[in-house]
Protein backbone atom coordinates (compact mmCIF):
# COMPACT_ATOMS: atom_id res chain seq x y z
CA UNK A 1 0.00 0.00 0.00
CA UNK A 2 1.22 3.53 -0.75
CA UNK A 3 1.33 6.30 1.80
CA UNK A 4 -2.43 6.78 1.40
CA UNK A 5 -4.46 6.62 4.60
CA UNK A 6 -7.74 4.69 4.71
CA UNK A 7 -9.91 5.18 7.76
CA UNK A 8 -13.30 4.79 9.36
CA UNK A 9 -14.59 7.21 11.99
CA UNK A 10 -13.47 6.31 15.51
CA UNK A 11 -15.28 6.99 18.77
CA UNK A 12 -12.85 8.83 21.05
CA UNK A 13 -13.38 9.67 24.70
CA UNK A 14 -13.28 13.28 25.95
CA UNK A 15 -10.13 12.56 27.96
CA UNK A 16 -8.31 11.35 24.85
CA UNK A 17 -9.42 14.47 23.01
CA UNK A 18 -8.01 16.41 25.94
CA UNK A 19 -4.75 14.53 25.55
CA UNK A 20 -4.58 15.67 21.92
CA UNK A 21 -4.58 19.23 23.24
CA UNK A 22 -1.52 18.33 25.28
CA UNK A 23 0.32 16.55 22.46
CA UNK A 24 3.90 17.56 21.83
CA UNK A 25 3.20 18.21 18.16
CA UNK A 26 2.37 21.83 17.39
CA UNK A 27 -0.54 20.93 15.12
CA UNK A 28 -1.74 17.35 14.60
CA UNK A 29 -2.23 16.03 11.09
CA UNK A 30 -5.53 14.28 11.80
CA UNK A 31 -8.28 14.62 14.39
CA UNK A 32 -10.95 11.89 14.58
CA UNK A 33 -14.17 12.53 16.49
CA UNK A 34 -17.50 10.76 16.62
CA UNK A 35 -19.54 13.93 17.10
CA UNK A 36 -19.61 16.86 14.70
CA UNK A 37 -18.35 20.20 16.01
CA UNK A 38 -21.16 22.70 16.43
CA UNK A 39 -21.08 25.52 13.86
CA UNK A 40 -18.85 23.73 11.34
CA UNK A 41 -21.14 24.81 8.48
CA UNK A 42 -20.83 28.51 9.35
CA UNK A 43 -19.57 30.53 6.38
CA UNK A 44 -19.88 27.81 3.74
CA UNK A 45 -21.72 27.90 0.44
CA UNK A 46 -25.17 26.55 1.30
CA UNK A 47 -25.41 24.56 -1.92
CA UNK A 48 -22.66 22.27 -0.66
CA UNK A 49 -24.46 21.31 2.56
CA UNK A 50 -26.29 17.95 2.34
CA UNK A 51 -30.01 18.45 1.78
CA UNK A 52 -32.17 18.16 4.88
CA UNK A 53 -29.13 18.62 7.11
CA UNK A 54 -29.91 19.84 10.65
CA UNK A 55 -27.46 22.71 11.02
CA UNK A 56 -27.97 22.88 14.80
CA UNK A 57 -26.30 19.52 15.46
CA UNK A 58 -22.87 19.30 16.96
CA UNK A 59 -20.95 19.44 20.20
CA UNK A 60 -19.46 22.71 21.49
CA UNK A 61 -16.67 20.77 23.22
CA UNK A 62 -15.52 19.41 19.86
CA UNK A 63 -15.62 22.92 18.37
CA UNK A 64 -13.47 24.19 21.22
CA UNK A 65 -11.03 21.31 20.84
CA UNK A 66 -10.62 21.67 17.06
CA UNK A 67 -10.24 25.44 17.27
CA UNK A 68 -7.46 24.84 19.80
CA UNK A 69 -5.43 22.04 18.17
CA UNK A 70 -6.00 23.16 14.53
CA UNK A 71 -5.62 19.81 12.72
CA UNK A 72 -5.01 19.76 8.99
CA UNK A 73 -7.79 17.20 8.61
CA UNK A 74 -10.79 16.68 10.87
CA UNK A 75 -12.78 13.47 10.30
CA UNK A 76 -16.16 13.03 12.02
CA UNK A 77 -19.24 10.84 11.96
CA UNK A 78 -22.59 10.54 13.82
CA UNK A 79 -24.60 12.83 11.48
CA UNK A 80 -25.29 9.99 9.06
CA UNK A 81 -24.17 11.86 5.91
CA UNK A 82 -21.07 12.33 3.78
CA UNK A 83 -19.88 15.93 3.70
CA UNK A 84 -16.62 17.38 2.40
CA UNK A 85 -16.55 20.94 3.70
CA UNK A 86 -14.68 23.75 1.98
CA UNK A 87 -11.30 24.24 3.69
CA UNK A 88 -11.21 26.93 6.34
CA UNK A 89 -8.44 29.17 7.68
CA UNK A 90 -7.28 28.80 11.28
CA UNK A 91 -6.77 31.61 13.76
CA UNK A 92 -3.14 31.70 14.86
CA UNK A 93 -1.90 29.18 12.26
CA UNK A 94 -0.93 29.45 8.59
CA UNK A 95 -2.41 26.16 7.36
CA UNK A 96 -6.02 25.37 6.51
CA UNK A 97 -8.21 22.63 7.96
CA UNK A 98 -10.34 20.29 5.88
CA UNK A 99 -13.44 18.85 7.57
CA UNK A 100 -14.76 15.53 6.20
CA UNK A 101 -17.82 13.74 7.57
CA UNK A 102 -18.41 10.10 6.70
CA UNK A 103 -21.72 8.30 6.39
CA UNK A 104 -22.45 5.02 8.22
CA UNK A 105 -20.97 1.84 6.81
CA UNK A 106 -23.36 0.21 4.33
CA UNK A 107 -25.86 3.10 4.35
CA UNK A 108 -28.85 2.71 2.02
CA UNK A 109 -28.09 5.92 0.12
CA UNK A 110 -24.63 4.58 -0.76
CA UNK A 111 -22.92 7.71 0.55
CA UNK A 112 -19.17 7.53 1.18
CA UNK A 113 -18.24 5.86 4.44
CA UNK A 114 -14.56 5.41 3.65
CA UNK A 115 -12.09 8.01 2.46
CA UNK A 116 -8.49 8.04 1.26
CA UNK A 117 -5.86 10.68 1.86
CA UNK A 118 -2.24 11.03 0.82
CA UNK A 119 -1.05 13.77 3.17
CA UNK A 120 2.49 15.12 3.17
CA UNK A 121 3.96 15.61 6.65
CA UNK A 122 4.34 19.29 7.52
CA UNK A 123 8.03 18.69 8.22
CA UNK A 124 8.51 17.87 4.53
CA UNK A 125 6.51 20.81 3.20
CA UNK A 126 7.94 24.19 2.31
CA UNK A 127 6.58 27.29 4.05
CA UNK A 128 4.80 28.37 0.87
CA UNK A 129 3.15 24.96 0.48
CA UNK A 130 1.98 24.97 4.09
CA UNK A 131 0.57 28.50 3.73
CA UNK A 132 -1.28 27.77 0.48
CA UNK A 133 -5.01 28.48 0.73
CA UNK A 134 -7.34 27.14 -2.01
CA UNK A 135 -9.61 29.73 -3.69
CA UNK A 136 -12.69 28.40 -1.87
CA UNK A 137 -11.12 28.74 1.63
CA UNK A 138 -13.50 30.28 4.19
CA UNK A 139 -12.97 31.94 7.53
CA UNK A 140 -12.84 29.73 10.60
CA UNK A 141 -16.41 28.56 11.32
CA UNK A 142 -15.63 28.64 15.05
CA UNK A 143 -14.74 32.32 15.09
CA UNK A 144 -18.07 32.88 13.34
CA UNK A 145 -19.76 30.70 15.94
CA UNK A 146 -18.44 32.97 18.70
CA UNK A 147 -19.76 36.02 16.87
CA UNK A 148 -23.16 34.37 16.60
CA UNK A 149 -23.01 33.40 20.28
CA UNK A 150 -22.27 36.99 21.31
CA UNK A 151 -25.56 38.24 19.86
CA UNK A 152 -28.83 38.70 21.70
CA UNK A 153 -28.93 35.13 23.00
CA UNK A 154 -31.88 34.04 20.88
CA UNK A 155 -30.14 30.82 19.87
CA UNK A 156 -29.62 29.52 23.38
CA UNK A 157 -28.81 25.83 23.60
CA UNK A 158 -31.44 23.41 24.79
CA UNK A 159 -31.11 21.96 28.26
CA UNK A 160 -29.89 25.20 29.88
CA UNK A 161 -33.02 25.68 31.94
CA UNK A 162 -32.38 27.06 35.40
CA UNK A 163 -35.61 25.47 36.55
CA UNK A 164 -33.90 22.08 36.70
CA UNK A 165 -33.55 21.35 40.42
CA UNK A 166 -30.03 19.96 39.90
CA UNK A 167 -28.78 22.73 37.57
CA UNK A 168 -25.34 24.09 38.41
CA UNK A 169 -26.01 27.32 40.28
CA UNK A 170 -23.79 30.35 39.76
CA UNK A 171 -24.34 34.04 40.31
CA UNK A 172 -24.44 36.30 37.26
CA UNK A 173 -21.08 37.96 37.89
CA UNK A 174 -19.40 34.56 38.06
CA UNK A 175 -21.10 33.24 34.94
CA UNK A 176 -20.03 36.24 32.86
CA UNK A 177 -16.47 36.30 34.15
CA UNK A 178 -14.99 35.59 30.73
CA UNK A 179 -17.64 37.46 28.72
CA UNK A 180 -18.07 37.27 24.95
CA UNK A 181 -21.51 35.69 25.19
CA UNK A 182 -20.16 32.20 25.74
CA UNK A 183 -19.35 33.07 29.36
CA UNK A 184 -22.02 30.79 30.81
CA UNK A 185 -20.54 27.73 29.11
CA UNK A 186 -17.83 25.82 30.92
CA UNK A 187 -14.40 25.36 29.36
CA UNK A 188 -13.96 21.60 28.92
CA UNK A 189 -10.18 21.84 28.96
CA UNK A 190 -10.09 23.76 32.25
CA UNK A 191 -12.66 21.54 33.99
CA UNK A 192 -10.91 18.35 32.86
CA UNK A 193 -7.27 19.30 33.39
CA UNK A 194 -7.26 22.35 35.65
CA UNK A 195 -5.74 24.62 33.00
CA UNK A 196 -6.43 26.28 29.68
CA UNK A 197 -3.64 27.82 27.61
CA UNK A 198 -5.96 30.57 26.37
CA UNK A 199 -6.23 31.97 29.90
CA UNK A 200 -8.26 35.19 30.06
CA UNK A 201 -8.71 35.09 26.28
CA UNK A 202 -10.82 31.94 26.54
CA UNK A 203 -14.48 32.53 25.64
CA UNK A 204 -15.63 29.81 28.03
CA UNK A 205 -15.85 29.85 31.80
CA UNK A 206 -12.96 28.68 34.00
CA UNK A 207 -14.75 27.64 37.17
CA UNK A 208 -12.91 26.10 40.13
CA UNK A 209 -16.11 24.75 41.72
CA UNK A 210 -17.05 22.93 38.52
CA UNK A 211 -13.49 21.59 38.38
CA UNK A 212 -13.83 20.18 41.90
CA UNK A 213 -17.20 18.62 41.03
CA UNK A 214 -15.62 17.02 37.96
CA UNK A 215 -12.87 15.54 40.13
CA UNK A 216 -15.60 13.97 42.23
CA UNK A 217 -16.92 12.21 39.16
CA UNK A 218 -19.73 14.54 38.10
CA UNK A 219 -20.57 14.50 34.37
CA UNK A 220 -19.30 17.50 32.39
CA UNK A 221 -22.47 17.69 30.28
CA UNK A 222 -24.54 17.76 33.46
CA UNK A 223 -22.42 20.59 34.86
CA UNK A 224 -22.57 22.50 31.60
CA UNK A 225 -26.22 22.01 30.61
CA UNK A 226 -28.01 20.82 33.71
CA UNK A 227 -28.66 17.44 32.13
CA UNK A 228 -26.86 14.74 30.16
CA UNK A 229 -28.29 13.36 26.94
CA UNK A 230 -26.60 10.00 27.54
CA UNK A 231 -28.88 9.41 30.51
CA UNK A 232 -28.39 6.03 32.22
CA UNK A 233 -25.69 5.09 29.69
CA UNK A 234 -23.39 7.77 31.10
CA UNK A 235 -20.79 6.42 33.54
CA UNK A 236 -20.48 9.72 35.46
CA UNK A 237 -22.62 11.16 38.26
CA UNK A 238 -25.65 13.33 37.54
CA UNK A 239 -25.93 15.15 40.83
CA UNK A 240 -23.70 17.54 42.71
CA UNK A 241 -21.43 15.88 45.25
CA UNK A 242 -21.29 17.03 48.87
CA UNK A 243 -22.92 20.31 48.00
CA UNK A 244 -22.85 22.90 50.77
CA UNK A 245 -19.90 21.26 52.55
CA UNK A 246 -16.57 21.05 50.77
CA UNK A 247 -17.78 23.40 48.03
CA UNK A 248 -19.35 26.01 50.24
CA UNK A 249 -16.12 27.98 50.41
CA UNK A 250 -16.39 28.10 54.22
CA UNK A 251 -13.91 26.65 56.65
CA UNK A 252 -15.00 25.10 59.91
CA UNK A 253 -13.21 25.49 63.21
CA UNK A 254 -10.15 23.38 63.81
CA UNK A 255 -11.88 20.59 65.70
CA UNK A 256 -15.04 20.06 63.67
CA UNK A 257 -13.22 20.90 60.44
CA UNK A 258 -10.62 18.20 61.05
CA UNK A 259 -13.34 15.65 61.77
CA UNK A 260 -15.31 16.51 58.63
CA UNK A 261 -12.14 16.54 56.56
CA UNK A 262 -11.28 13.00 57.65
CA UNK A 263 -14.78 11.80 56.81
CA UNK A 264 -14.67 13.32 53.33
CA UNK A 265 -11.04 12.48 52.46
CA UNK A 266 -10.33 9.54 50.15
CA UNK A 267 -7.03 8.77 51.90
CA UNK A 268 -7.70 9.12 55.63
CA UNK A 269 -7.88 5.63 57.18
CA UNK A 270 -10.79 6.76 59.35
CA UNK A 271 -12.81 7.91 56.35
CA UNK A 272 -15.87 5.96 55.18
CA UNK A 273 -14.80 6.90 51.63
CA UNK A 274 -11.53 4.98 51.96
CA UNK A 275 -11.29 2.03 49.56
CA UNK A 276 -9.40 -0.24 51.90
CA UNK A 277 -9.24 -3.13 49.41
CA UNK A 278 -6.58 -1.14 47.50
CA UNK A 279 -4.21 -0.93 50.50
CA UNK A 280 -1.15 -3.15 50.09
CA UNK A 281 1.07 -2.23 53.05
CA UNK A 282 0.57 -0.30 56.30
CA UNK A 283 3.39 1.10 58.42
CA UNK A 284 3.34 3.14 61.59
CA UNK A 285 3.30 6.49 59.79
CA UNK A 286 2.75 5.76 56.05
CA UNK A 287 0.85 3.26 54.00
CA UNK A 288 0.98 2.06 50.41
CA UNK A 289 -2.05 1.54 48.15
CA UNK A 290 -2.74 0.85 44.51
CA UNK A 291 -3.89 3.91 42.60
CA UNK A 292 -7.56 4.21 41.68
CA UNK A 293 -7.76 4.07 37.88
CA UNK A 294 -4.07 3.08 37.54
CA UNK A 295 -1.93 4.24 34.62
CA UNK A 296 -0.12 0.88 34.69
CA UNK A 297 -0.93 -2.30 36.59
CA UNK A 298 1.46 -1.64 39.50
CA UNK A 299 0.83 2.11 39.81
CA UNK A 300 0.91 2.73 43.56
CA UNK A 301 0.73 5.62 46.04
CA UNK A 302 2.73 6.24 49.20
CA UNK A 303 0.44 8.09 51.63
CA UNK A 304 1.08 9.48 55.12
CA UNK A 305 -1.48 8.19 57.62
CA UNK A 306 -1.88 11.65 59.14
CA UNK A 307 -3.82 14.12 56.98
CA UNK A 308 -0.85 16.20 55.83
CA UNK A 309 -0.80 18.56 52.82
CA UNK A 310 2.36 17.19 51.14
CA UNK A 311 5.24 14.77 51.67
CA UNK A 312 7.95 17.47 51.73
CA UNK A 313 7.21 18.62 55.30
CA UNK A 314 6.72 15.28 57.05
CA UNK A 315 7.62 14.60 60.67
CA UNK A 316 10.99 12.74 60.85
CA UNK A 317 9.40 9.38 61.70
CA UNK A 318 6.98 9.67 58.81
CA UNK A 319 9.79 10.64 56.43
CA UNK A 320 11.68 7.48 57.42
CA UNK A 321 8.61 5.35 56.71
CA UNK A 322 8.21 6.95 53.30
CA UNK A 323 11.88 6.44 52.47
CA UNK A 324 11.68 2.74 53.40
CA UNK A 325 8.64 2.19 51.18
CA UNK A 326 10.26 4.11 48.35
CA UNK A 327 13.43 2.00 48.47
CA UNK A 328 11.49 -1.25 48.77
CA UNK A 329 9.33 -0.43 45.76
CA UNK A 330 12.41 0.44 43.70
CA UNK A 331 14.02 -2.89 44.59
CA UNK A 332 10.83 -4.83 43.82
CA UNK A 333 10.40 -3.23 40.40
CA UNK A 334 14.13 -3.46 39.63
CA UNK A 335 13.82 -7.22 39.81
CA UNK A 336 11.08 -7.02 37.18
CA UNK A 337 13.29 -5.04 34.80
CA UNK A 338 11.59 -1.73 35.57
CA UNK A 339 12.62 1.72 36.74
CA UNK A 340 10.42 3.98 38.87
CA UNK A 341 9.17 7.53 38.38
CA UNK A 342 8.00 9.36 41.53
CA UNK A 343 5.96 12.55 41.30
CA UNK A 344 3.75 14.68 43.52
CA UNK A 345 1.35 17.57 43.02
CA UNK A 346 1.69 19.79 46.09
CA UNK A 347 -1.45 21.90 46.22
CA UNK A 348 -1.49 25.07 48.29
CA UNK A 349 -5.08 24.10 49.14
CA UNK A 350 -3.69 21.32 51.26
CA UNK A 351 -5.31 18.06 50.13
CA UNK A 352 -4.14 14.76 51.66
CA UNK A 353 -0.59 14.14 50.44
CA UNK A 354 0.16 11.23 48.14
CA UNK A 355 3.39 10.40 46.33
CA UNK A 356 2.71 8.75 42.97
CA UNK A 357 4.88 5.74 42.09
CA UNK A 358 4.81 4.62 38.46
CA UNK A 359 7.05 1.74 37.24
CA UNK A 360 8.14 1.95 33.60
CA UNK A 361 10.18 -0.36 31.35
CA UNK A 362 13.93 0.15 31.86
CA UNK A 363 14.25 0.76 28.11
CA UNK A 364 12.30 4.02 28.49
CA UNK A 365 14.07 5.29 31.61
CA UNK A 366 16.58 7.44 29.73
CA UNK A 367 13.75 9.35 27.98
CA UNK A 368 11.83 10.42 31.09
CA UNK A 369 13.74 13.61 31.88
CA UNK A 370 13.71 14.69 28.25
CA UNK A 371 9.98 14.18 27.77
CA UNK A 372 9.14 16.10 30.97
CA UNK A 373 11.34 18.97 29.79
CA UNK A 374 9.62 18.92 26.38
CA UNK A 375 6.23 19.04 28.08
CA UNK A 376 7.36 21.95 30.25
CA UNK A 377 8.56 23.83 27.19
CA UNK A 378 5.18 23.25 25.56
CA UNK A 379 3.50 24.89 28.56
CA UNK A 380 5.96 27.77 28.61
CA UNK A 381 8.11 27.07 31.67
CA UNK A 382 11.46 25.47 32.53
CA UNK A 383 11.99 22.99 35.34
CA UNK A 384 14.40 23.71 38.18
CA UNK A 385 16.82 20.78 38.40
CA UNK A 386 18.07 19.30 41.66
CA UNK A 387 20.72 16.59 41.79
CA UNK A 388 21.83 15.05 45.06
CA UNK A 389 23.01 11.49 45.71
CA UNK A 390 21.35 11.67 49.15
CA UNK A 391 17.60 11.34 48.54
CA UNK A 392 16.61 12.60 52.00
CA UNK A 393 18.81 15.68 51.63
CA UNK A 394 17.42 16.36 48.16
CA UNK A 395 13.85 16.31 49.48
CA UNK A 396 14.82 18.54 52.39
CA UNK A 397 16.43 21.01 49.99
CA UNK A 398 13.32 20.99 47.80
CA UNK A 399 11.11 21.67 50.83
CA UNK A 400 13.30 24.55 51.99
CA UNK A 401 12.68 26.36 48.71
CA UNK A 402 8.93 25.75 48.71
CA UNK A 403 6.71 28.75 49.29
CA UNK A 404 3.74 27.36 51.20
CA UNK A 405 1.48 29.89 49.48
CA UNK A 406 2.31 28.34 46.11
CA UNK A 407 1.52 25.00 44.54
CA UNK A 408 4.40 22.84 43.36
CA UNK A 409 4.88 19.96 40.96
CA UNK A 410 7.98 17.82 41.20
CA UNK A 411 9.10 14.54 39.64
CA UNK A 412 12.03 12.28 40.47
CA UNK A 413 13.24 10.64 37.28
CA UNK A 414 15.28 7.42 37.09
CA UNK A 415 18.81 8.24 38.18
CA UNK A 416 17.69 10.48 41.05
CA UNK A 417 17.40 13.88 39.36
CA UNK A 418 14.45 15.90 40.68
CA UNK A 419 12.65 18.33 38.37
CA UNK A 420 10.43 20.89 40.09
CA UNK A 421 8.20 23.78 39.12
CA UNK A 422 6.59 26.31 41.48
CA UNK A 423 3.16 27.18 40.07
CA UNK A 424 2.26 30.86 40.14
CA UNK A 425 -1.13 32.13 41.35
CA UNK A 426 -2.66 32.70 37.89
CA UNK A 427 -0.70 30.04 36.03
CA UNK A 428 -2.70 27.46 34.10
CA UNK A 429 -1.08 24.19 35.10
CA UNK A 430 -2.62 20.78 34.28
CA UNK A 431 -3.77 19.02 37.43
CA UNK A 432 -2.79 15.62 35.95
CA UNK A 433 0.44 16.85 34.34
CA UNK A 434 2.66 14.02 35.61
CA UNK A 435 0.24 11.33 34.55
CA UNK A 436 -0.40 12.90 31.13
CA UNK A 437 3.33 13.08 30.35
CA UNK A 438 3.92 9.46 31.37
CA UNK A 439 0.86 8.35 29.38
CA UNK A 440 2.51 9.92 26.34
CA UNK A 441 5.86 8.27 27.09
CA UNK A 442 4.20 4.84 27.40
CA UNK A 443 1.95 5.35 24.33
CA UNK A 444 -1.14 5.12 26.53
CA UNK A 445 -2.90 8.35 25.58
CA UNK A 446 -6.30 6.87 26.43
CA UNK A 447 -5.16 6.45 30.06
CA UNK A 448 -4.20 10.08 30.63
CA UNK A 449 -7.36 10.51 32.73
CA UNK A 450 -7.66 8.09 35.67
CA UNK A 451 -11.45 7.97 35.29
CA UNK A 452 -11.05 6.11 32.00
CA UNK A 453 -9.06 3.38 33.77
CA UNK A 454 -11.45 2.50 36.59
CA UNK A 455 -11.93 -1.19 37.35
CA UNK A 456 -14.60 -3.07 39.23
CA UNK A 457 -14.05 -3.56 42.95
CA UNK A 458 -13.40 -7.28 42.39
CA UNK A 459 -10.78 -6.52 39.74
CA UNK A 460 -9.12 -3.98 42.03
CA UNK A 461 -9.07 -6.42 44.94
CA UNK A 462 -7.56 -9.14 42.76
CA UNK A 463 -4.91 -6.74 41.48
CA UNK A 464 -4.07 -5.65 45.05
CA UNK A 465 -3.66 -9.25 46.21
CA UNK A 466 -1.37 -9.99 43.27
CA UNK A 467 0.75 -6.96 44.11
CA UNK A 468 0.96 -7.95 47.78
CA UNK A 469 2.33 -11.37 46.79
CA UNK A 470 5.07 -9.95 44.57
CA UNK A 471 5.94 -7.20 47.07
CA UNK A 472 5.92 -9.44 50.17
CA UNK A 473 9.67 -10.15 50.36
CA UNK A 474 10.44 -6.43 49.96
CA UNK A 475 7.70 -4.99 52.19
CA UNK A 476 9.29 -3.29 55.23
CA UNK A 477 5.97 -3.65 57.09
CA UNK A 478 5.45 -7.39 56.59
Quick gist of this model?
InterPro entries: Cwf19-like, Cwf19-like_C_dom-1, Cwf19-like_C_dom-2, HIT-like_sf, Znf_CCCH, Znf_CCCH_sf. Helix content is 28%, strand content 14%.
Describe the structure.
By secondary structure, the chain is of the alpha+beta class. It has 3 domains: 5-145, no CATH class; 158-233, no CATH class; 274-471, HIT family, subunit A (2-Layer Sandwich), CATH 3.30.428. The chain contains 14 helices and 15 strands. The chain has helices at residues 14-21, 60-69, 127-131, 141-149, 172-175, 188-193, 208-215, 220-225, 254-264, 316-335, 368-379, 391-400, 433-441, 457-471; strands at 5-7, 30-33, 73-76, 83-84, 88-89, 96-101, 115-117, 279-282, 286-290, 300-304, 338-346, 355-361, 384-386, 407-412, 418-423. The strands form 3 sheets. The protein has an 8-stranded antiparallel β-sheet with strand order 8-9-10-12-11-14-15-13, with helices on both faces. Helix 1 packs parallel to helix 2 and helix 11 crosses helix 13 (433-441). The protein is elongated and about 75 Å long. 33% of the residues are buried. The model is unreliable at 1-26, 150-183 and 243-260 (pLDDT under 50).
Average pLDDT, all residues: 77
What helical percentage do the residues reach?
25-40%
The CATH homology group name of the largest domain: HIT-like
CATH-derived topology of the largest domain: HIT family, subunit A
| SSE pattern, N- to C-terminal | EHEHEEEEEHHHHHHHEEEHEEHEHEEHH
Strand order of the largest sheet: 8-9-10-12-11-14-15-13
Keywords: Metal-binding, Signal, Zinc, Zinc-finger
InterPro entries: Cwf19-like, Cwf19-like_C_dom-1, Cwf19-like_C_dom-2, HIT-like_sf, Znf_CCCH, Znf_CCCH_sf
Protein name: C3H1-type domain-containing protein
Domain C3H1-type: 181-209, 213-241
